């Protein structure tokens, strides 16, 4: 691994995304990196806010509407684009979603774990709430509290996850199912199938505001009927 590509896909979750981007730029890894924010068809007002934020902090902003006419979400497009870039540069890919705030040591810690395990495919932070309790999608990991690194066969969510060059070489994102919206479960399984190990890091937690990047999913708690209608009949959130 010679470099780190950090990305944050954003779809209108500007308030949480602002915290995400500012935290990364305030706590950059002590390792060669680039940081790109992918604007996935946010509203014109939110696009303008993202432009101002990225210009202020010196972060590269890519508007996906300039790159593809595919409707949001464009996670697959971003993954495929970044895989090609990382392979050219022998770089790892670190995904930090727009409802996550990294903490001191997070980024360097993930890089260190990846460097210490030659067979690593994915290295992921666990997620916690403001009180420090592990929350969705890592509530299951509470039993590992206090352990620095856990080799796991459980799928890892991409809230804050590093995909190693070894994974990027062995798993072809061009073969992922284009009918799906999200690929953390699939790629977790493909990493194991490729003979790699996935590592979860309870000692490197990140603050997570669940569904901040997909506000419509809050309906699960306030209006479950409407939530499941949108999920299944609207064809949203295909994992």
> Assembly type of the shown chains?
single chain
Largest sheet: 9 strands, mixed
Task: Give the class from helix and strand content and strand pairing.
Answer: alpha/beta
Radius of gyration from the alpha-carbon trace, in angstroms: 17 Å
> Uncertain regions: pLDDT < 50 for 5+ in a row?
none
Shape: globular
In terms of DSSP E residues, the strand content is 15-25%
Mean pLDDT: 92
Q: List how many beta strands DSSP finds.
A: 9
Order of helical and strand elements? EHEHEHEEHEEEHHEHH
What is the share of helical residues?
A: 25-40%
Structure characteristics:
globular, 23% strand, alpha/beta, 8 helices, 239 residues, nine-stranded mixed sheet
How would you characterize this protein structure?
Helix content is 35%, strand content 23%. It has 239 residues and is an alpha/beta fold. Strands 1, 2, 3, 4, 5, 6, 7, 8 and 9 form a 9-stranded mixed beta sheet that branches. The longest helix is centred in the middle third of the chain and has 15 residues, at 75-89. The chain is globular and about 45 Å long. The model has no long low-confidence stretch (mean pLDDT 92).
TL;DR of this structure?
With about 240 residues, the chain is α/β, with parallel strands linked by helices. About 35% of the residues lie in helices and about 25% in strands. It has 8 helices and 9 strands.
């Amino acid at each position: 691994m010679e470099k780190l590509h950090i990305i944050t896909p954003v779809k209108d979750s500007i308030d949480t995304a602002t915290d995400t981007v500012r935290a990364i730029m305030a706590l950059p890894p002590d390792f060669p990196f680039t940081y790109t924010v992918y604007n996935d068809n946010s509203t014109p007002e939110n696009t303008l806010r993202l432009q101002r934020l990225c210009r202020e902090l010196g972060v590269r902003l890519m508007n996906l509407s300039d790159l593809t006419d595919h409707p949001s979400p464009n996670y697959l497009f971003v993954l495929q684009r970044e895989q090609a870039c990382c392979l050219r540069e022998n770089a790892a890919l670190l995904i930090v979603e727009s409802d996550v705030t990294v903490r001191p040591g997070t980024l360097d810690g993930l890089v260190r774990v990846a460097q210490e395990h030659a067979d690593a495919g994915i290295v992921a932070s666990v997620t916690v709430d403001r009180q420090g309790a592990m929350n969705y999608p890592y509530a299951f990991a509470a039993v590992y509290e206090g352990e620095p690194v856990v080799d796991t066969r459980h799928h890892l969510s991409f809230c804050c996850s590093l995909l190693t060059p070894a994974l990027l070489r062995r798993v072809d994102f061009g073969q992922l199912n284009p009918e799906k919206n999200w690929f953390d479960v699939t790629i977790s399984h493909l990493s194991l199938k490729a003979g790699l190990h996935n590592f979860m890091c309870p000692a490197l937690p990140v603050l997570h505001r669940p569904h901040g990047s997909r506000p419509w999913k809050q309906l699960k708690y306030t209006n479950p009927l409407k939530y499941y209608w949108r999920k299944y009949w609207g064809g949203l959130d295909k994992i």
